[in-house]
Amino acid sequence: MVHHGALFVVMSLGLVVAAGGELPEQSSLDPWFRLVGRMHPLLVHFPIGLVLAAAAVEAWRWARRERGVSEFTSVAMLLAALSAVGAVATGWINAWQEGQDASSTLSLHSWLGTAMAAVLLAAAWKTRRRDEPPASTEARLAPARVLTMASALGIGLAGHFGGELVHGEGYVEKALFAALGMDGSDGGADAARSEVAIESDGSTSASAAVVVRAVKAGTVDFQTQVLPIFESRCFECHGNGKRKGGLAMDSAASMTKADDDGVAVKAGEPDASLIVQRIMLPASDPDSMPPEGERLTDAERDLIRTWIKEGGVMEAVAAGVAAAPGAVKGAAPSLDADLSRRAAEVAQALRARGVIAQPLAQDDPRLDINASLATPPFTDADLAMLQPAAQAIVNLNLARSQVTDAGVAGLKGFDGLESLRLDSTGVGDAALACVAAMPRLKVLNVHSTKVTDAGLAALKQATALERVYAWNSQVTPAGAATLASARPNLRVNVGQE
Q: In 194-230, which positions are buried (b, 16+ CB within 10 angstroms) versus exposed (e)?
Protein backbone atom coordinates (compact mmCIF):
# COMPACT_ATOMS: atom_id res chain seq x y z
CA MET A 1 0.00 0.00 0.00
CA VAL A 2 1.25 3.47 -0.86
CA HIS A 3 1.94 5.47 2.26
CA HIS A 4 -0.57 8.24 2.83
CA GLY A 5 2.19 10.84 3.11
CA ALA A 6 3.68 9.86 -0.25
CA LEU A 7 0.23 10.05 -1.83
CA PHE A 8 -0.19 13.53 -0.37
CA VAL A 9 3.10 14.70 -1.90
CA VAL A 10 2.29 13.24 -5.33
CA MET A 11 -1.18 14.78 -5.41
CA SER A 12 0.06 18.18 -4.24
CA LEU A 13 2.87 18.25 -6.77
CA GLY A 14 0.29 17.45 -9.42
CA LEU A 15 -1.71 20.50 -8.37
CA VAL A 16 1.39 22.71 -8.51
CA VAL A 17 2.33 21.50 -11.99
CA ALA A 18 -1.25 21.86 -13.18
CA ALA A 19 -1.33 25.43 -11.93
CA GLY A 20 1.52 26.31 -14.24
CA GLY A 21 -0.04 24.71 -17.26
CA GLU A 22 -2.27 26.12 -19.98
CA LEU A 23 -5.63 27.43 -18.87
CA PRO A 24 -8.72 27.54 -21.07
CA GLU A 25 -9.14 30.73 -23.06
CA GLN A 26 -12.87 31.16 -22.45
CA SER A 27 -15.23 29.67 -19.93
CA SER A 28 -18.70 30.28 -18.60
CA LEU A 29 -17.05 30.04 -15.19
CA ASP A 30 -14.90 33.14 -15.80
CA PRO A 31 -16.55 35.19 -12.99
CA TRP A 32 -15.78 32.38 -10.54
CA PHE A 33 -12.24 32.04 -11.85
CA ARG A 34 -11.80 35.79 -11.33
CA LEU A 35 -13.03 35.48 -7.74
CA VAL A 36 -10.71 32.55 -7.04
CA GLY A 37 -7.76 34.37 -8.63
CA ARG A 38 -8.28 37.40 -6.45
CA MET A 39 -7.86 35.22 -3.38
CA HIS A 40 -4.13 35.10 -4.23
CA PRO A 41 -3.11 38.17 -2.15
CA LEU A 42 -4.98 36.67 0.82
CA LEU A 43 -3.38 33.24 0.57
CA VAL A 44 0.16 34.21 -0.40
CA HIS A 45 1.09 35.82 2.92
CA PHE A 46 0.17 32.78 4.99
CA PRO A 47 3.01 30.44 3.85
CA ILE A 48 5.54 33.27 3.97
CA GLY A 49 4.91 33.95 7.66
CA LEU A 50 4.86 30.25 8.56
CA VAL A 51 8.09 29.41 6.75
CA LEU A 52 10.01 32.39 8.12
CA ALA A 53 8.89 31.51 11.64
CA ALA A 54 9.85 27.84 11.17
CA ALA A 55 13.24 28.81 9.75
CA ALA A 56 13.91 31.09 12.75
CA VAL A 57 12.99 28.31 15.18
CA GLU A 58 15.21 25.75 13.46
CA ALA A 59 18.10 28.19 13.13
CA TRP A 60 17.91 28.74 16.91
CA ARG A 61 17.74 25.02 17.63
CA TRP A 62 20.58 24.35 15.19
CA ALA A 63 22.77 26.95 16.89
CA ARG A 64 22.01 25.36 20.29
CA ARG A 65 22.70 21.88 18.87
CA GLU A 66 19.27 20.64 19.88
CA ARG A 67 18.24 17.28 18.49
CA GLY A 68 15.21 16.72 16.31
CA VAL A 69 12.85 19.04 14.50
CA SER A 70 10.55 21.07 16.74
CA GLU A 71 6.86 20.23 16.83
CA PHE A 72 6.10 23.79 15.74
CA THR A 73 8.25 23.43 12.62
CA SER A 74 6.56 20.17 11.69
CA VAL A 75 3.08 21.69 11.86
CA ALA A 76 4.10 25.05 10.35
CA MET A 77 5.80 23.48 7.30
CA LEU A 78 2.81 21.24 6.62
CA LEU A 79 0.41 24.18 6.75
CA ALA A 80 2.83 26.29 4.68
CA ALA A 81 3.05 23.61 1.98
CA LEU A 82 -0.72 23.27 1.74
CA SER A 83 -1.32 27.02 1.63
CA ALA A 84 1.54 27.47 -0.88
CA VAL A 85 -0.19 25.09 -3.28
CA GLY A 86 -3.34 27.19 -2.98
CA ALA A 87 -1.37 30.42 -3.39
CA VAL A 88 0.35 29.14 -6.53
CA ALA A 89 -2.90 27.91 -8.07
CA THR A 90 -4.74 31.16 -7.39
CA GLY A 91 -1.71 33.16 -8.57
CA TRP A 92 -1.70 31.51 -11.99
CA ILE A 93 -5.46 31.94 -12.27
CA ASN A 94 -5.16 35.59 -11.27
CA ALA A 95 -2.48 36.28 -13.87
CA TRP A 96 -4.65 34.62 -16.51
CA GLN A 97 -7.84 36.43 -15.51
CA GLU A 98 -6.28 39.85 -15.03
CA GLY A 99 -4.37 39.69 -18.32
CA GLN A 100 -0.93 40.06 -16.78
CA ASP A 101 1.77 40.80 -19.33
CA ALA A 102 4.60 38.28 -19.53
CA SER A 103 7.22 40.53 -17.96
CA SER A 104 10.44 39.12 -16.55
CA THR A 105 9.32 40.08 -13.04
CA LEU A 106 6.03 38.22 -13.42
CA SER A 107 7.82 35.16 -14.81
CA LEU A 108 10.29 35.14 -11.92
CA HIS A 109 7.49 35.54 -9.38
CA SER A 110 5.30 32.86 -10.96
CA TRP A 111 7.87 30.15 -11.61
CA LEU A 112 9.91 30.74 -8.46
CA GLY A 113 6.69 30.58 -6.46
CA THR A 114 5.73 27.34 -8.18
CA ALA A 115 9.17 25.84 -7.55
CA MET A 116 9.06 26.89 -3.91
CA ALA A 117 5.69 25.20 -3.45
CA ALA A 118 7.33 21.97 -4.57
CA VAL A 119 10.29 22.57 -2.22
CA LEU A 120 7.86 23.23 0.63
CA LEU A 121 6.14 19.94 -0.02
CA ALA A 122 9.49 18.16 0.23
CA ALA A 123 10.37 20.15 3.36
CA ALA A 124 7.00 19.28 4.94
CA TRP A 125 7.72 15.61 4.29
CA LYS A 126 11.20 15.81 5.79
CA THR A 127 10.13 17.79 8.87
CA ARG A 128 7.21 15.52 9.78
CA ARG A 129 7.33 13.97 13.25
CA ARG A 130 6.74 10.25 13.56
CA ASP A 131 7.81 7.30 15.62
CA GLU A 132 11.05 5.94 14.19
CA PRO A 133 14.49 4.85 15.39
CA PRO A 134 16.63 7.71 16.72
CA ALA A 135 19.19 7.04 13.99
CA SER A 136 16.57 7.64 11.28
CA THR A 137 15.38 10.82 12.95
CA GLU A 138 18.93 12.12 13.18
CA ALA A 139 19.66 11.19 9.57
CA ARG A 140 16.90 13.40 8.21
CA LEU A 141 17.48 16.27 10.64
CA ALA A 142 20.10 18.09 8.55
CA PRO A 143 18.17 17.79 5.24
CA ALA A 144 15.00 18.93 7.01
CA ARG A 145 16.70 22.05 8.36
CA VAL A 146 18.44 22.83 5.07
CA LEU A 147 15.11 22.56 3.21
CA THR A 148 13.45 24.80 5.80
CA MET A 149 16.14 27.49 5.40
CA ALA A 150 16.08 27.20 1.60
CA SER A 151 12.28 27.48 1.64
CA ALA A 152 12.47 30.67 3.69
CA LEU A 153 15.00 32.21 1.30
CA GLY A 154 13.18 31.16 -1.84
CA ILE A 155 9.69 32.10 -0.72
CA GLY A 156 10.98 35.46 0.47
CA LEU A 157 12.53 36.10 -2.93
CA ALA A 158 9.32 35.09 -4.70
CA GLY A 159 7.43 37.48 -2.43
CA HIS A 160 9.90 40.23 -3.32
CA PHE A 161 9.14 39.86 -7.02
CA GLY A 162 5.44 39.87 -6.19
CA GLY A 163 5.91 43.15 -4.35
CA GLU A 164 7.63 44.64 -7.39
CA LEU A 165 4.60 43.75 -9.51
CA VAL A 166 2.45 45.86 -7.19
CA HIS A 167 4.79 48.70 -6.21
CA GLY A 168 7.12 48.89 -9.21
CA GLU A 169 10.59 47.58 -9.92
CA GLY A 170 13.30 48.38 -7.41
CA TYR A 171 10.73 49.14 -4.68
CA VAL A 172 12.80 47.55 -1.91
CA GLU A 173 16.25 48.14 -3.39
CA LYS A 174 15.74 51.90 -3.67
CA ALA A 175 14.82 52.16 0.00
CA LEU A 176 17.71 49.86 0.97
CA PHE A 177 20.32 51.82 -0.95
CA ALA A 178 18.92 55.08 0.41
CA ALA A 179 19.11 53.74 3.98
CA LEU A 180 22.70 52.62 3.43
CA GLY A 181 23.64 55.93 1.84
CA MET A 182 24.62 54.16 -1.37
CA ASP A 183 23.90 54.95 -5.01
CA GLY A 184 22.37 51.75 -6.34
CA SER A 185 20.93 53.21 -9.53
CA ASP A 186 22.01 52.13 -12.94
CA GLY A 187 21.27 55.46 -14.55
CA GLY A 188 18.10 54.17 -16.12
CA ALA A 189 15.80 53.34 -13.23
CA ASP A 190 15.41 56.91 -12.07
CA ALA A 191 14.95 58.14 -15.61
CA ALA A 192 12.22 55.59 -16.16
CA ARG A 193 10.57 56.75 -12.98
CA SER A 194 10.40 60.37 -14.09
CA GLU A 195 9.73 59.99 -17.78
CA VAL A 196 6.28 59.78 -19.20
CA ALA A 197 6.96 57.85 -22.38
CA ILE A 198 9.18 54.89 -23.05
CA GLU A 199 10.93 55.17 -26.31
CA SER A 200 13.96 57.37 -25.81
CA ASP A 201 15.47 59.57 -28.48
CA GLY A 202 18.87 58.12 -27.61
CA SER A 203 19.86 60.44 -24.80
CA THR A 204 20.56 58.97 -21.37
CA SER A 205 19.91 62.18 -19.48
CA ALA A 206 16.97 62.16 -17.06
CA SER A 207 15.92 65.51 -18.52
CA ALA A 208 16.04 64.34 -22.13
CA ALA A 209 12.99 64.57 -24.31
CA VAL A 210 11.20 61.33 -25.07
CA VAL A 211 9.74 60.64 -28.47
CA VAL A 212 6.96 58.12 -28.95
CA ARG A 213 5.86 58.80 -32.52
CA ALA A 214 5.70 61.65 -34.94
CA VAL A 215 3.07 64.16 -33.90
CA LYS A 216 -0.09 64.28 -35.98
CA ALA A 217 -2.40 67.25 -35.84
CA GLY A 218 -5.66 66.66 -34.01
CA THR A 219 -8.29 68.47 -31.99
CA VAL A 220 -7.20 66.79 -28.73
CA ASP A 221 -3.79 67.59 -27.30
CA PHE A 222 -2.31 64.59 -25.47
CA GLN A 223 0.02 66.51 -23.21
CA THR A 224 -2.47 69.07 -21.88
CA GLN A 225 -5.74 67.14 -22.05
CA VAL A 226 -5.26 63.37 -21.98
CA LEU A 227 -2.06 63.00 -19.98
CA PRO A 228 -3.45 64.85 -16.93
CA ILE A 229 -6.29 62.32 -16.74
CA PHE A 230 -3.82 59.43 -16.89
CA GLU A 231 -1.63 61.10 -14.26
CA SER A 232 -4.40 61.68 -11.77
CA ARG A 233 -6.49 58.54 -12.26
CA CYS A 234 -4.27 55.84 -13.77
CA PHE A 235 -0.58 56.19 -12.91
CA GLU A 236 -0.97 54.99 -9.32
CA CYS A 237 -1.41 51.48 -10.75
CA HIS A 238 -0.21 51.79 -14.34
CA GLY A 239 2.71 54.23 -14.33
CA ASN A 240 6.04 55.17 -12.77
CA GLY A 241 7.25 51.56 -12.74
CA LYS A 242 3.90 49.95 -11.86
CA ARG A 243 2.32 47.55 -14.36
CA LYS A 244 -0.88 46.30 -12.76
CA GLY A 245 -2.60 43.90 -15.11
CA GLY A 246 0.55 44.05 -17.28
CA LEU A 247 -0.26 47.59 -18.49
CA ALA A 248 2.10 50.55 -18.15
CA MET A 249 0.29 53.67 -19.34
CA ASP A 250 3.54 55.63 -19.44
CA SER A 251 4.80 53.16 -22.04
CA ALA A 252 3.90 53.43 -25.71
CA ALA A 253 5.04 49.85 -26.23
CA SER A 254 2.73 48.59 -23.49
CA MET A 255 -0.21 50.75 -24.58
CA THR A 256 -0.10 49.44 -28.14
CA LYS A 257 0.83 45.82 -27.45
CA ALA A 258 -1.90 43.29 -28.22
CA ASP A 259 -2.53 40.35 -25.90
CA ASP A 260 -5.29 37.79 -25.49
CA ASP A 261 -7.71 40.47 -24.26
CA GLY A 262 -6.90 42.99 -26.97
CA VAL A 263 -4.89 46.20 -27.06
CA ALA A 264 -5.11 49.17 -24.70
CA VAL A 265 -4.95 51.76 -27.48
CA LYS A 266 -5.83 50.76 -31.03
CA ALA A 267 -5.09 53.83 -33.12
CA GLY A 268 -8.17 55.15 -34.87
CA GLU A 269 -10.51 52.63 -33.22
CA PRO A 270 -11.65 53.75 -29.75
CA ASP A 271 -14.34 51.07 -29.47
CA ALA A 272 -11.70 48.37 -30.06
CA SER A 273 -9.37 49.87 -27.43
CA LEU A 274 -9.39 48.25 -23.99
CA ILE A 275 -8.98 51.59 -22.23
CA VAL A 276 -12.25 52.85 -23.68
CA GLN A 277 -14.00 49.55 -23.01
CA ARG A 278 -12.95 49.55 -19.35
CA ILE A 279 -13.81 53.18 -18.59
CA MET A 280 -17.26 52.68 -20.11
CA LEU A 281 -18.13 49.69 -17.89
CA PRO A 282 -20.56 50.28 -15.01
CA ALA A 283 -18.98 50.80 -11.59
CA SER A 284 -20.39 47.45 -10.42
CA ASP A 285 -18.29 45.54 -12.97
CA PRO A 286 -15.01 44.24 -11.44
CA ASP A 287 -13.14 45.20 -14.64
CA SER A 288 -14.35 48.80 -14.53
CA MET A 289 -11.63 51.46 -14.52
CA PRO A 290 -10.60 53.26 -12.46
CA PRO A 291 -11.42 50.69 -9.78
CA GLU A 292 -11.52 53.22 -6.94
CA GLY A 293 -12.60 56.80 -6.50
CA GLU A 294 -14.95 58.78 -8.69
CA ARG A 295 -15.84 57.64 -12.18
CA LEU A 296 -14.41 59.51 -15.14
CA THR A 297 -16.77 62.19 -16.34
CA ASP A 298 -18.44 62.09 -19.75
CA ALA A 299 -16.13 64.90 -20.86
CA GLU A 300 -13.03 62.93 -19.84
CA ARG A 301 -14.27 59.81 -21.61
CA ASP A 302 -15.01 61.80 -24.73
CA LEU A 303 -11.50 63.29 -24.69
CA ILE A 304 -9.91 59.83 -24.51
CA ARG A 305 -12.20 58.48 -27.25
CA THR A 306 -11.44 61.43 -29.52
CA TRP A 307 -7.71 61.18 -28.84
CA ILE A 308 -7.67 57.51 -29.87
CA LYS A 309 -9.88 58.19 -32.89
CA GLU A 310 -7.38 60.80 -34.04
CA GLY A 311 -4.55 58.29 -33.84
CA GLY A 312 -3.72 57.95 -30.14
CA VAL A 313 -0.58 60.03 -30.60
CA MET A 314 1.62 60.47 -27.54
CA GLU A 315 3.63 63.53 -28.48
CA ALA A 316 7.25 64.19 -27.61
CA VAL A 317 7.21 65.48 -24.06
CA ALA A 318 9.87 66.59 -21.64
CA ALA A 319 10.79 64.36 -18.77
CA GLY A 320 8.98 65.42 -15.64
CA VAL A 321 5.60 66.04 -17.26
CA ALA A 322 4.07 63.56 -14.81
CA ALA A 323 4.95 65.82 -11.89
CA ALA A 324 8.30 64.10 -11.55
CA PRO A 325 11.01 65.36 -9.20
CA GLY A 326 13.25 68.16 -10.39
CA ALA A 327 10.49 69.70 -12.50
CA VAL A 328 11.46 73.30 -11.69
CA LYS A 329 14.36 74.70 -13.66
CA GLY A 330 17.52 75.27 -11.72
CA ALA A 331 19.63 73.20 -9.42
CA ALA A 332 17.82 71.28 -6.70
CA PRO A 333 18.53 72.54 -3.19
CA SER A 334 20.85 70.39 -1.15
CA LEU A 335 19.81 69.24 2.31
CA ASP A 336 21.95 69.56 5.39
CA ALA A 337 22.47 66.55 7.63
CA ASP A 338 19.84 67.62 10.15
CA LEU A 339 17.12 68.12 7.52
CA SER A 340 18.02 64.82 5.87
CA ARG A 341 17.64 63.09 9.23
CA ARG A 342 14.27 64.75 9.87
CA ALA A 343 13.10 63.79 6.38
CA ALA A 344 13.92 60.14 7.05
CA GLU A 345 12.08 60.25 10.39
CA VAL A 346 9.00 61.86 8.81
CA ALA A 347 8.98 59.27 6.02
CA GLN A 348 9.10 56.45 8.57
CA ALA A 349 6.22 57.95 10.57
CA LEU A 350 4.15 58.46 7.42
CA ARG A 351 4.65 54.86 6.33
CA ALA A 352 3.34 53.74 9.71
CA ARG A 353 0.26 55.88 8.96
CA GLY A 354 -0.29 54.05 5.66
CA VAL A 355 1.23 56.75 3.45
CA ILE A 356 3.66 56.05 0.61
CA ALA A 357 6.73 58.11 1.49
CA GLN A 358 10.12 57.59 -0.11
CA PRO A 359 13.27 59.48 -1.16
CA LEU A 360 13.33 60.82 -4.70
CA ALA A 361 16.41 58.74 -5.51
CA GLN A 362 19.18 56.76 -3.89
CA ASP A 363 21.33 59.87 -3.64
CA ASP A 364 18.51 62.38 -3.06
CA PRO A 365 16.87 62.31 0.40
CA ARG A 366 14.13 64.78 -0.58
CA LEU A 367 10.67 63.24 -0.29
CA ASP A 368 7.94 62.04 -2.61
CA ILE A 369 4.78 61.64 -0.49
CA ASN A 370 1.52 60.03 -1.62
CA ALA A 371 -1.27 60.15 0.99
CA SER A 372 -4.09 59.51 -1.49
CA LEU A 373 -4.48 55.86 -0.49
CA ALA A 374 -4.10 56.22 3.28
CA THR A 375 -6.71 54.48 5.44
CA PRO A 376 -8.37 56.19 7.23
CA PRO A 377 -8.10 59.20 4.90
CA PHE A 378 -5.45 61.83 5.61
CA THR A 379 -6.76 64.85 7.56
CA ASP A 380 -5.62 68.33 8.59
CA ALA A 381 -4.33 66.88 11.85
CA ASP A 382 -2.14 64.46 9.90
CA LEU A 383 -0.57 67.33 7.94
CA ALA A 384 1.27 68.34 11.11
CA MET A 385 3.40 65.22 10.63
CA LEU A 386 4.95 66.84 7.56
CA GLN A 387 6.18 70.03 9.21
CA PRO A 388 9.61 68.81 10.46
CA ALA A 389 10.55 67.97 6.85
CA ALA A 390 8.67 70.83 5.15
CA GLN A 391 11.64 72.04 3.11
CA ALA A 392 12.54 68.52 2.00
CA ILE A 393 9.19 67.60 0.40
CA VAL A 394 9.13 67.86 -3.39
CA ASN A 395 5.97 65.97 -4.41
CA LEU A 396 2.88 65.91 -2.19
CA ASN A 397 -0.22 63.96 -3.22
CA LEU A 398 -3.25 64.67 -1.00
CA ALA A 399 -5.85 63.57 -3.58
CA ARG A 400 -9.06 62.05 -2.17
CA SER A 401 -8.01 62.98 1.36
CA GLN A 402 -10.06 64.90 3.93
CA VAL A 403 -7.77 67.94 4.12
CA THR A 404 -9.47 71.34 4.15
CA ASP A 405 -8.56 74.94 3.36
CA ALA A 406 -7.35 75.37 6.93
CA GLY A 407 -5.03 72.41 6.64
CA VAL A 408 -3.54 73.53 3.33
CA ALA A 409 -3.06 77.03 4.75
CA GLY A 410 -0.73 75.40 7.25
CA LEU A 411 1.67 74.34 4.51
CA LYS A 412 3.71 77.50 4.90
CA GLY A 413 7.44 76.93 4.63
CA PHE A 414 7.12 74.13 2.07
CA ASP A 415 9.52 76.02 -0.17
CA GLY A 416 10.83 72.94 -1.98
CA LEU A 417 7.42 71.73 -3.11
CA GLU A 418 7.22 71.27 -6.89
CA SER A 419 4.05 69.24 -7.33
CA LEU A 420 0.88 69.41 -5.22
CA ARG A 421 -2.27 67.36 -5.74
CA LEU A 422 -5.46 68.44 -3.97
CA ASP A 423 -7.88 66.88 -6.44
CA SER A 424 -11.11 65.28 -5.23
CA THR A 425 -10.91 67.04 -1.86
CA GLY A 426 -13.10 69.68 -0.21
CA VAL A 427 -10.62 72.55 -0.63
CA GLY A 428 -11.66 75.86 -2.15
CA ASP A 429 -10.29 79.30 -2.88
CA ALA A 430 -8.80 79.89 0.57
CA ALA A 431 -6.30 77.08 0.02
CA LEU A 432 -4.79 78.73 -3.04
CA ALA A 433 -3.57 81.80 -1.17
CA CYS A 434 -0.94 79.66 0.54
CA VAL A 435 -0.21 77.73 -2.64
CA ALA A 436 0.53 80.94 -4.54
CA ALA A 437 3.39 81.70 -2.15
CA MET A 438 5.26 78.45 -2.84
CA PRO A 439 8.35 79.56 -4.77
CA ARG A 440 9.11 76.33 -6.63
CA LEU A 441 5.62 74.90 -7.24
CA LYS A 442 5.23 73.99 -10.88
CA VAL A 443 2.28 71.57 -11.03
CA LEU A 444 -1.02 72.03 -9.17
CA ASN A 445 -4.00 69.68 -9.45
CA VAL A 446 -7.33 70.94 -8.07
CA HIS A 447 -9.76 69.05 -10.28
CA SER A 448 -13.05 68.07 -8.62
CA THR A 449 -12.71 70.72 -5.88
CA LYS A 450 -14.57 73.90 -4.88
CA VAL A 451 -11.95 76.22 -6.39
CA THR A 452 -13.48 79.11 -8.37
CA ASP A 453 -12.22 81.81 -10.71
CA ALA A 454 -11.57 84.05 -7.69
CA GLY A 455 -9.23 81.52 -6.16
CA LEU A 456 -7.54 80.91 -9.47
CA ALA A 457 -6.72 84.61 -9.77
CA ALA A 458 -4.50 84.33 -6.68
CA LEU A 459 -2.17 82.08 -8.69
CA LYS A 460 -0.90 85.07 -10.66
CA GLN A 461 1.68 85.41 -7.90
CA ALA A 462 2.89 81.80 -8.27
CA THR A 463 5.93 82.63 -10.38
CA ALA A 464 7.12 79.05 -10.96
CA LEU A 465 3.70 77.57 -11.71
CA GLU A 466 3.36 76.16 -15.23
CA ARG A 467 0.34 73.82 -15.16
CA VAL A 468 -2.96 73.82 -13.28
CA TYR A 469 -5.51 71.03 -13.68
CA ALA A 470 -8.95 72.33 -12.70
CA TRP A 471 -11.59 70.36 -14.60
CA ASN A 472 -14.77 69.49 -12.70
CA SER A 473 -14.08 72.42 -10.36
CA GLN A 474 -15.94 75.75 -10.36
CA VAL A 475 -13.26 77.34 -12.52
CA THR A 476 -14.69 78.57 -15.82
CA PRO A 477 -13.00 78.81 -19.23
CA ALA A 478 -13.21 82.59 -18.88
CA GLY A 479 -11.41 82.50 -15.54
CA ALA A 480 -8.73 80.23 -16.97
CA ALA A 481 -8.29 82.54 -19.96
CA THR A 482 -7.91 85.56 -17.67
CA LEU A 483 -5.13 83.88 -15.72
CA ALA A 484 -3.46 82.66 -18.92
CA SER A 485 -3.43 86.17 -20.33
CA ALA A 486 -1.70 87.44 -17.19
CA ARG A 487 0.70 84.48 -17.18
CA PRO A 488 1.36 83.40 -20.82
CA ASN A 489 3.55 80.45 -19.75
CA LEU A 490 0.89 79.01 -17.43
CA ARG A 491 -1.49 76.36 -18.83
CA VAL A 492 -4.83 75.94 -17.06
CA ASN A 493 -6.74 72.80 -18.02
CA VAL A 494 -10.49 72.99 -17.39
CA GLY A 495 -11.33 70.06 -19.69
CA GLN A 496 -12.39 72.21 -22.61
CA GLU A 497 -9.13 72.87 -24.45
A: bbbbbebeeeeebeeebbbbeeeeeebbbbbbbbbbb
